[in-house]
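Quick note —
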Amino acid sequence: MLGRDHEPSDIERRRTMEQSRALPTEVDLSRPSAARVYDYFLGGAHNFEIDRQLAQQIAAMTPNLADTMRAGRAFLRRAVAELTRLGVDQYLDIGSGIPTVGNVHEVAQGINPKARIVYVDIDPVAVAHSRSILEDNPLTAVIQADVRDPAHILSEARETGLLDFTKPIGVLLAGIVHFVPDSDDPDRLMAALRDAVPPGSYLVISHSTYEDQPQEMLDAQKLSARTATEITLRSKAQVSAYFGDWELLEPGVVHMPLWRPDSPDDVDDQPERFGAFGGVARKPAAG
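Predicted structure written out below.
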């Protein structure tokens, strides 16, 4: 059975239909969207029947995928909550998708109502939906940009006027860097993002891996090669290197459920089954 965080209410469904009428005409609602399929897996209401049909087909082929997506979102929620409690009040969320159930602005602003968030995604469908959802939230902005072009991301983020690059920023890269192939030099891209923010900033990364995975999971990952968003699986050492010389928060780079779980009961006896590592690091003072 396809698992979800919750079933959207009739009110949420009606709100989604209202939002669909407000979307730009170039958003094709007759075709499924990867961003809306992801939203469905997370229990969001910003999806349509055609997206739900595709999600159910995917779930039948890879039953663990929905759990992996939810584990990734849960890791992101815990990381943002921890950083907000540590005083971070501005975030740059790259590869954000649709800001649905329990996303960054909900978590951060639930702790600090003045927290500011800039969402970044390359998918025009995700961007259009995000702008519609967040139009009444003046402390958020949505920009369309490619993770492979950090200069453009940083320029657009500055132009929003929401982020102060002289103060600590939480840079979030949850489930996005594995879409950057080695040929696009992810080490260089990550270094550019690290260099752009001041000391005291934090970097959050989750990334798919081949380590500790059964062969059937690796075979399933190979299916991504048939799509426009092929996933590059990387080792714990490779993921750790993306943090550069920043100071890793305990417990370091670990399988996602192991990163500061809300309760020991939230971690089952196979945390590696979610197929991804997560970690958070702080930029040290210069010198």
